[in-house]
Amino acid sequence: MPVADALSQLLDSVKVTTATEQVSIVDALGRVLAEDVCSGVDVPPADNSAMDGYCLRFEDYQPGQSMQVSQRIPAGVAPQPLEPGTLARIFTGAEVPVNADTVIMQEDVAADERGVVINEAPERGQHIRPRGQDIGSGQTILAKGSRIRPQDMGLLASVGVGEVRVYKPLRVAILSTGDELVEPGTPLQKGQIYNSNRYTLIGLLRGLGLDILDLGVVPDDIGATEAAFIRAASEADVVLSSGGVSVGEEDHIKAVLEKLGSLAFWRLAIKPGKPFTLGRIMDIPFAGLPGNPAAVFVTFALLCRPWLLKMQGASDYMPTEVLVPAGFSTRKPGGRQEYLRARLVQSEQGSKVEIYPNQSSGVLFSASWGNGFAVVPPGQRVSEGDLVRFLPYEMILN
């Protein structure tokens, strides 16, 4: 199945969570809004000065005339109405008094024995930030489905919102299959490898703000696989596995999936990650990722991430890509869409994309070496200088 068709099927299968909770904005980073947020105030709440200087009525300005200072207005102090024919000393962010409509920068005035002389002719309304310039009362500032970013936390605070209603995090069960897998910190015996996929998936899921049910390693046994799937589907909203989705004698996931639920697809035209599986276990969404470490990284980033974000209620779940000149070439066209572990580099000649020399699905170092994926469609070859699609990690991992 082509990647685009698989992604479309994944997204079409989504049922958005409905469970919500109220959280403080301090704890809202990365959470998905369950309702629109509207401002109850104007920001700024009153006309205020954009500069340190002096405010006056524009019609009181006379070139070369000395004017008296009738009050001093620091930020946070409510001013008195401005006396006609006078200036008020005012500071950045301070509320402009009634009657004043113009601010003069302090660099454009000079003091004399009678007061202050304005040396530069002003324009009416200069250096004043009007009430509601940033946000108007009743304005929707964040829409339902938005994932809250640091700047959004500040935006919420700026209108006095201390709590927001968000969707409860999905609980995602993860498990790895394979008798050869052991945990870091344990000495390796012959035929064993460390279980890197568990930690890759934990990091990726935490980056999305999701809860994790970690079921560890499941032996290559059909009974153990079935028992683990039953537990996962009973205790989680979504189930992810790594490994065991091929057609070898020790790969049992496909058979167990067909017994306990349903299988939508299990082979994709993607490289790396061909044996990617979508289905349901006891009516719980399931995705089976390949066992090779780089393939787990690629398929989660490109397929599972948008699937999970949409399920979590997010409205913006597709990554943004850019076109960048290739700093590499490929030897011949491939039959699958390739996601090459790559990095964007800058030089005096401009930006270009380099790829890691070994693109094997078992080479996880390539993922840490890179900062994104270079996309090569099936049936195409790349020559150096060609424009290629590039997906930066920051667009697909958080």
UniProtKB/TrEMBL annotation:
<dbReference type="InterPro" id="IPR005111">
    <property type="entry name" value="MoeA_C_domain_IV"/>
</dbReference>
<dbReference type="Pfam" id="PF03453">
    <property type="entry name" value="MoeA_N"/>
</dbReference>
<dbReference type="InterPro" id="IPR036688">
    <property type="entry name" value="MoeA_C_domain_IV_sf"/>
</dbReference>
<dbReference type="GO" id="GO:0061599">
    <property type="term" value="F:molybdopterin molybdotransferase activity"/>
</dbReference>
<dbReference type="InterPro" id="IPR008284">
    <property type="entry name" value="MoCF_biosynth_CS"/>
</dbReference>
<keyword id="KW-0501">Molybdenum cofactor biosynthesis</keyword>
<dbReference type="InterPro" id="IPR005110">
    <property type="entry name" value="MoeA_linker/N"/>
</dbReference>
<dbReference type="GO" id="GO:0046872">
    <property type="term" value="F:metal ion binding"/>
</dbReference>
<dbReference type="InterPro" id="IPR001453">
    <property type="entry name" value="MoaB/Mog_dom"/>
</dbReference>
<dbReference type="GO" id="GO:0006777">
    <property type="term" value="P:Mo-molybdopterin cofactor biosynthetic process"/>
</dbReference>
<feature type="domain" description="MoaB/Mog">
    <location>
        <begin position="173"/>
        <end position="310"/>
    </location>
</feature>
<dbReference type="InterPro" id="IPR036135">
    <property type="entry name" value="MoeA_linker/N_sf"/>
</dbReference>
<dbReference type="GO" id="GO:0005829">
    <property type="term" value="C:cytosol"/>
</dbReference>
<dbReference type="InterPro" id="IPR038987">
    <property type="entry name" value="MoeA-like"/>
</dbReference>
<comment type="pathway">
    <text>Cofactor biosynthesis; molybdopterin biosynthesis.</text>
</comment>
<keyword id="KW-0479">Metal-binding</keyword>
<keyword id="KW-0460">Magnesium</keyword>
<dbReference type="Pfam" id="PF00994">
    <property type="entry name" value="MoCF_biosynth"/>
</dbReference>
<dbReference type="Pfam" id="PF03454">
    <property type="entry name" value="MoeA_C"/>
</dbReference>
<protein>
    <recommendedName>
        <fullName>Molybdopterin molybdenumtransferase</fullName>
        <ecNumber>2.10.1.1</ecNumber>
    </recommendedName>
</protein>
<keyword id="KW-0500">Molybdenum</keyword>
<keyword id="KW-0808">Transferase</keyword>
<comment type="function">
    <text>Catalyzes the insertion of molybdate into adenylated molybdopterin with the concomitant release of AMP.</text>
</comment>
<comment type="similarity">
    <text>Belongs to the MoeA family.</text>
</comment>
<dbReference type="InterPro" id="IPR036425">
    <property type="entry name" value="MoaB/Mog-like_dom_sf"/>
</dbReference>
